[in-house]
């Protein structure tokens, strides 16, 4: 719920959840998430998927999760307390848990496209994506490295979006993402750090209601380079990027030695931390709260979150998957959508 003109409350549109890899755990954690959230514990959402296969899966797993096909997203609001609303999307090939079939890749891609279109039209308040299996998509001709790049293309962005991982108590932003560590170090640039910091600060204001964001920037080398004795990237690249961000009026500290940046007292001093490579960001986050991490894409014209795990093909179809990260992603998306709507309206006079 958000406050409208004159203080009246208005309800945001439901969240759009994509099917993800059909042979993975996406469908079962969606059913499980509905069971948790339908009683009023969380935001309404609809799933873009095949209603018949969902109903069959719920029956196979013994989940008391009725499925209700809907024709339009707005129907999800009335349906959600009673059944999982599903916007129908057929699958060309039968689904066998744990065995991705490239024949279903067009449906996986179409679910993402439909969710984005609905979010951009206002019919959905945000996009939440179930995990995809990239290898299956690549075999079907998918040309994007992953979700983030595909979403950026759908949004028509010129500048690259930024990935944030968040859990209660910590937000991390890897400046370099899915690449070998040697390539990440070689590819670290002043411009890349500055871009990540600027996008992160804007998102903290717009989507997290933090008026004056505080950013910490992790060093690349041990002891922040020890004045050049352990590496020169801090002086040559990271420090100048920090100065660029400060020149734009941002509250930025660093380069901070990474080994003292993630304990409880340190985390209280910033709202998000820029990390120089993937594992520098994800190891502390997953250590602090493995099951409730959320993947958030910053810099898009719509809100997008995702559970911070993969397709889990090895346990798909067994009913043992943990829906906690998806529930966290749905909850985070709803809160961000509310914050963005309030930010767009501006301060109340």
Question: Would you mind describing this structure in some detail?
Answer:
By secondary structure, this protein is α/β, with parallel strands linked by helices. It has two domains: 1-158 and 303-349, Isopropylmalate Dehydrogenase (3-Layer(aba) Sandwich); 169-288, Isopropylmalate Dehydrogenase. The protein is built from twelve helices and 14 strands. The chain has helices at 26-37, 51-61, 75-79, 105-121, 134-139, 147-155, 181-186, 190-208, 233-247, 264-267, 278-288, 324-345; strands at 2-3, 9-10, 15-18, 45-49, 67-69, 84-88, 127-128, 162-167, 170-174, 214-218, 251-256, 272-275, 294-298, 304-307. Strands 5-6-4-3-7-14-13-8-9-12-10-11 form a twelve-stranded mixed sheet, sandwiched between helices. A two-stranded antiparallel sheet has the order 1-2. A hairpin with a 5-residue loop joins β1 (2-3) and β2. The radius of gyration is 21 Å and the shape is globular. The model is unreliable at 1-10 (pLDDT under 50).
Present the secondary structure layout:
Elements: E1 2-3, E2 9-10, E3 15-18, H1 26-37, E4 45-49, H2 51-61, E5 67-69, H3 75-79, E6 84-88, H4 105-121, E7 127-128, H5 134-139, H6 147-155, E8 162-167, E9 170-174, H7 181-186, H8 190-208, E10 214-218, H9 233-247, E11 251-256, H10 264-267, E12 272-275, H11 278-288, E13 294-298, E14 304-307, H12 324-345
Parallel strand pairs: 3-4, 3-7, 4-6, 5-6, 7-14, 9-12, 10-11, 10-12
Antiparallel strand pairs: 1-2, 8-9, 8-13, 13-14
Helix pairs in contact: 8-9, 8-12
């Amino acid at each position: 719920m958000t406050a409208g003109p004159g203080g009246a409350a208005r309800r945001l549109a439901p969240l759009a959840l994509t099917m993800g890899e059909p042979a993975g755990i996406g469908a079962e954690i969606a059913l499980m998430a509905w069971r948790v959230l339908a009683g009023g514990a969380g935001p309404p959402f609809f799933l873009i998927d095949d209603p018949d296969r969902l109903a069959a899966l719920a029956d196979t797993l013994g989940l008391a999760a009725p499925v209700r096909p809907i024709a339009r997203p707005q129907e999800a609001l009335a349906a959600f307390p009673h059944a999982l609303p599903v916007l129908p999307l057929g699958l060309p090939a039968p689904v066998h848990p744990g065995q991705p079939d490239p024949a279903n890749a067009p449906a996986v891609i179409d679910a993402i496209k439909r969710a984005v279109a609905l979010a951009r039209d206002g019919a959905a308040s945000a996009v939440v994506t179930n995990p995809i299996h990239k290898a299956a998509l690549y075999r079907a001709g998918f040309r994007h490295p992953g979700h983030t790049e595909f979403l950026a293309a759908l949004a028509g962005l010129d500048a690259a979006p930024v990935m944030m991982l968040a859990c209660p108590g910590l937000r991390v932003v890897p400046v370099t993402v899915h690449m070998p560590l040697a390539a990440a170090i070689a590819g670290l640039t002043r411009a890349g750090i500055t871009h990540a910091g600027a996008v992160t600060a804007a998102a903290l204001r717009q989507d997290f209601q933090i008026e004056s964001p505080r950013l910490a920037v992790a060093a690349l080398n041990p002891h922040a380079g020890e004045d050049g004795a352990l590496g020169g990237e801090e002086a040559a690249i990271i420090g100048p990027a920090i100065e660029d961000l400060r020149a734009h009026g941002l509250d930025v500290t660093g380069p901070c030695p990474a080994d003292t940046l993630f304990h409880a007292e340190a985390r209280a001093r910033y709202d998000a931390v820029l990390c120089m490579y993937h594992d520098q960001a994800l190891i502390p986050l997953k250590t602090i709260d493995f099951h409730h991490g959320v993947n958030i894409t910053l810099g898009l014209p719509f809100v997008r979150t995702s559970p911070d795990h993969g397709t889990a093909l090895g346990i798909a179809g067994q009913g043992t998957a943990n829906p906690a990260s998806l529930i966290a992603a749905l909850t985070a998306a709803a809160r961000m959508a509310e914050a963005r709507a309030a930010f767009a309206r501006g301060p109340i006079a």
